[in-house]
């Protein structure tokens, strides 16, 4: 047996190990172990166990519980299936923490709001961890006493495409691409230069409206809130 190929017996054995590991966690474990066998590929067992423990800690802090999946609506169960798929693919603790926050926030929601959570979950899946950091930075970009921003100062260091240094130029291009991607998803929008007298956006006949960077949208703020990164909550 090579690579990640698993025989049926080996597959069943690994699933049993996962269900035993997750099921022993009291608050969230039984619910997740029930869903594991038909949602998660075997080679991603450890990530699901880590995710369940991170979710467990959040549930304990607010005294919420997950019980058998039959006690929840189809919308919630479908959302949890997608959460587990994303958690199984995630190699970062931060990403699993974002997913755990979204689950906890959804626990007390009506079905209509859970559908909103599923939409945010899909958007989260489309951005990488560095893009999450950039999005969060626009929530309070000037507040560098913020622990989150201090932690990621190296990532958030502005790069210039005008640099003659090839490495610096390449980093600036990637940085610009992150922001453009966030804009395409409706999480950031251009911040336009305003005329000091009229307070209206400055319009140039050749280039159009003059943008001076980006600002976070309400949709971007909502995503940040749902994944537990809003410093004002």
Topology readout:
Layout (H helix, E strand, L loop, with lengths): L7 H16 L5 H8 L8 H18 L11 H16 L3 H14 L4 H16 L2 H9 L9 H5 L1 H4 L9 H19 L3 E5 L10 E2 L3 E2 L1 E6 L1 H9 L7
Antiparallel strand pairs: 1-4, 2-3
Helix pairs in contact: 1-2, 1-3, 3-4, 3-5, 4-5, 4-6, 5-6
Number of domains: 2
DSSP strand (E) fraction? Answer: 5-15%
Low-confidence stretches: 1-8
Helix content: 55-70%
Number of strands: 4
- For the termini, the CA-CA separation is 50 Å
SS-derived structural category: mainly alpha
Question: Could you tell me the mean pLDDT?
Answer: 82
Strand order of the largest sheet: 1-4
Explain this structure to me?
This protein has 233 residues and is mainly alpha-helical. The protein has 2 domains: 8-126; 130-226, Orthogonal Bundle (Arc Repressor Mutant, subunit A). Helices cover 58% and strands 6% of the residues. The chain has 11 helices and 4 strands; from the N terminus they run H-H-H-H-H-H-H-H-H-H-E-E-E-E-H. It has helices spanning 8-23, 29-36, 45-62, 74-89, 93-106, 111-126, 129-137, 147-151, 153-156, 166-184, 218-226; strands spanning 188-192, 203-204, 208-209, 211-216. Strands 1-4 form a two-stranded antiparallel ribbon. A two-stranded antiparallel sheet has the order 2-3. Helix 3 packs across helix 4. It starts with 7 loop residues before the first helix and ends in a 7-residue tail after the last helix. The relative contact order is 0.09. The model is unreliable at 1-8 (pLDDT under 50).
């Amino acid at each position: 047996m090579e690579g990640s190929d698993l025989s049926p017996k080996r597959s069943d054995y690994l699933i049993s190990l996962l269900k035993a590991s997750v099921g022993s966690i009291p608050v969230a474990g039984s619910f997740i172990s029930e869903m594991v066998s038909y949602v998660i590929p075997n080679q991603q067992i450890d990530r699901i166990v880590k995710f369940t423990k991170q979710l467990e800690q959040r549930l304990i802090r607010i005294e919420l519980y997950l019980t058998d999946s039959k006690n929840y609506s189809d919308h919630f169960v479908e959302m949890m299936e997608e959460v587990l798929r994303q958690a199984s693919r995630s190699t970062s603790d931060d990403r699993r923490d974002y997913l755990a926050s979204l689950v906890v926030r959804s626990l007390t929601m009506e079905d209509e709001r859970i559908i909103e959570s599923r939409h945010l979950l899909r958007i989260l899946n489309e951005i990488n961890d560095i893009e999450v950091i950039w999005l969060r930075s626009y929530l309070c970009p000037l507040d560098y006493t913020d622990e989150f921003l201090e932690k990621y100062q190296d990532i958030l260091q502005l790069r210039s495409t005008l640099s003659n240094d090839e490495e610096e130029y390449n980093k600036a291009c990637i940085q610009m691409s992150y922001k453009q991607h966030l804009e395409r998803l409706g999480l950031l929008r251009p911040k336009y230069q305003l005329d000091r007298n009229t307070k209206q956006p400055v319009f140039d006949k050749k280039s159009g409206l003059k943008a001076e960077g980006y600002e976070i949208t309400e949709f971007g703020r909502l995503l940040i809130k749902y994944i537990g990164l809003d410093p004002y909550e």
